[in-house]
Amino acid sequence: MTAAIESPHADRRRSLAWALLVAAAVWLVPANLLPIMTLDTLGREQAGTIADGVLRLLRSGMPGLALVVFTASLLIPILKILVLAVIYWRTPAHPRPRGAIRAYRLVYWIGRWSMLDVFVVALLAGLMRFGVLARAVPEPGITAFALAVVLTMLSAHAFVTSQLWEPDHGSGANP
Questions:
Q1: Distance CA 124, CA 14 (A)
Q2: What is the pLDDT of residue 43?
Q3: Side by side, which strands form the sheet with 44-48?
Q4: Residue 96 and residue 112 in contact, taking contact as beta carbons nearer than 8 Å
Q5: Which domains does the chain possess?
Q6: pTM for this one?
Q7: I need a labelling partner for 17 at 20 to 30 A (CA). Which of 9, 104, 162, 175 fits?
């Protein structure tokens, strides 16, 4: 009886988690296609996407830093969305609830570090104000990236992990 009472609430939370995750995936597209920042050094402006930044780091002889930026800014946001989608898709009654909860906790933990890119751009924009010599200007891509990160974190927060162990009440089987 208790599971039947909790089920509608859990179903609403799961729907909310899905909606937030889909919105995050949608915002990730412009986050990767639009420029995140324009650097203006001595009158020469260079707007760039995250991928442009990775390529510039590679060309500048900094493959280690390029790998860090690629992993943190491109790979991890996509993997977070994919991992959460798999967990949500397989819920309720996940076939491997222990593995799913470990993956969920990892994504949840990584979420707090995902805003690092946004903070770096904000810091550069605030600190690089040297008149005509150099300045950094945030662009729309960083806003889209921040929205994708926040929506992913909200999605993970909205998900009810106890559903990983609960039977599917909507399948027509007797509860």
A1: 38
A2: 75
A3: 44-48, 37-41, 134-138
A4: no
A5: 11-160 (1.20.140)
A6: 0.80
A7: 175
